[in-house]
Design a protein that fits this description.
Blueprint: H1 16-37, H2 41-54, H3 59-71, H4 75-88, H5 93-109
């Protein structure tokens, strides 16, 4: 299941530039969620990609990138983003379930 908000923002140090950057990341994330809900997975991927460019450490954006790649059946890319997420949040139950689902689908495809 897609994460609906960016949650904790990694941001940078203080300053107006960071606020503008984080606002742009929030907007790109929101647009990614909207695109995903409309089954526009390629567009969602672009939006989440923009959000991660602006805030490279945001966990929910990484999670959503994994979900989008899964929807597009790009299993390796999905696992890569999910592993990046799990480095920091190794006990996240949703991420573990998603990882199991992806690996099962990969085996099925072979």
């Amino acid at each position: 299941k897609l994460r609906e908000d960016r949650g904790k923002k990694s941001g940078g140090l203080f300053g107006g530039g960071d606020k503008v950057k984080m606002a742009a990341a929030d907007e790109a994330f929101r647009q990614g969620v909207e695109s995903y809900r409309a089954d526009e997975y390629e567009q969602a991927l672009k939006r989440f990609g923009k959000a991660i460019e602006l805030d490279q450490d945001n966990a929910n954006t990484k999670f959503n990138l994994a979900v989008c790649f899964l929807a597009l059946e790009k299993f390796n890319e999905s696992i890569n983003w999910l592993q990046d997420f799990l480095v920091k949040y190794k006990d996240d139950i949703d991420a573990k379930a998603l990882f199991a689902k992806i690996t099962a689908l990969q085996r099925k495809k072979k």
